[in-house]
Amino acid sequence: MTAESQAVAERGHSAPDELSRKLAVLRDAYEAERYPDIEVRKDRLQRLWSALDTHARRLCEALNSDFGHRSPKQSYFTDIATTGKSIRLTRKGLARWMKPEKRKVDFPFSVLGASARVEYQPLGVVGILSPWNVPVNLTLTPLAGVLGAGNRAMIKPSEHTPATSQVMVELIASAFSDDEVTTVTGGADIGQRFSALAFDHLVFTGGTAIARHIMRAAADNLTPLTLELGGKSPVLVGEDADLNLAAKRTVFGKVFNAGQVCLAPDYVLVHERQREALVSAIQAEIQATLPEGAMSDDYVAVINERQSDRIKAYLDEARAAGARVWSADAGQGRRIPITLIVDPPEDLRVCHEEIFGPLLVVRSYAQFAQALDYINARPRPLALYYFGNNATQRRQVIQDTVSGGVTINDVVMHYTFDDLPFGGVGPSGMGAYHGFDGFRQFSHARAVYHQTRFDLGRIIRPPYGRAFELFSRHVMTRG
């Protein structure tokens, strides 16, 4: 964080009682308009897109300030362009998504005029707690789903990117009234109060440890949650894989935001006969991608000293344990180079904690089944990446492991397609959004049944007789 960002952080935060007041304003507005029509929703999404486009340059400058160095080109793509795409596609999909879904009605009701459908109803007021690593995208992309579903929203952006958060506050204020979307700012104390508010749904993106506190705070109100967390996402390289391709695409996943992404490859599993060839390919790709090393303009600094110290501690522990550690350059300050740690002792912290930074563990296996067992012995990750063309192995990866998502012969890419749900499972999260999945996540799927005018209900009302017995048997065997 630069001095400029620190100055922004030290300016006024939201007062604790302001949170309840803002929620009450949103709640009253929801009660007055429980089901916004499609034109209202499309207008809100268009305003969001336009405000993002207007503030794009300032957001990229703020991200550079908050990180200490972050390529404006990367920021535009990661936080502006992909977010704008999600907003546009949500707006485009509303006419189809909002239509009631016809559902099947059992015989004999089906032939006597009964009907059933599902209608998607707004939940009400949704809270969004967003992270520091990709702060614009991971705030406004879920917001697009929230608004598309017809809800109001209150956002608390991360205190670790204060300059960016301030621009987002201004962006939201320029596009929405306080009874549509509002923001609050502050540190962990405000975040704790925020998560204890009586929202109709709460979205949190961040670490698993904090998510546990969020769940406890939300429990008193039985607030439903969407948790987008992380974990140690593995890269599994099959024996028939193109090693140069695997190296190129895995390195991209680490260079991208210096590995400070919940979907970043955390460790690589490669057959022991191919380990050295893959390590050499990764080393060559790192040097080709960042010829100036960690000081390249296209690279990203680690967000702050706390995170930098944590990552450097992993390296110190690995070196002290005699692990093989390689980087192309020494880096400087928080500009930590992409660093390989090859077959380290299993008891090191880097083997158990989510790295969330520019380190990559490479570990060898003797049998493919051994690699699957290694993955399954660990908490379920947000993503799993498989390189190879063996159809049997691909099917094993998909059927015999559990992760939030899978990308075959690449990394991260499943996140980029809005028609695929993005979410974790178990320790890597719960719930999913993007596209229709986001619309559905932030809606209540309301069952609507129209009964036939014929009084078939008399069959199941006391006093019970032979007709009831026959009907019960029909339900058991043919219903």
Automatic annotation (TrEMBL):
Any single GO CC term annotated in Swiss-Prot or TrEMBL for this entry: cytoplasm
A GO BP entry: aldehyde metabolic process
UniProt xrefs under InterPro entries: Ald_DH/histidinol_DH, Ald_DH_C, Ald_DH_CS_CYS, Ald_DH_CS_GLU, Ald_DH_N, Aldehyde_DH_dom, Aldehyde_DH_NAD(P)
Molecular-function GO terms, alphabetical: aldehyde dehydrogenase (NAD+) activity
The UniProt record lists the keyword Oxidoreductase: yes
Keyword S-adenosyl-L-methionine included in the entry's annotation: no
Keywords from the named record: NAD, Oxidoreductase
Aldehyde dehydrogenase domain ranges (all copies): 15-448
Protein name, per record: Aldehyde dehydrogenase
Species lineage: Bacteria, Pseudomonadati, Pseudomonadota, Gammaproteobacteria, Chromatiales
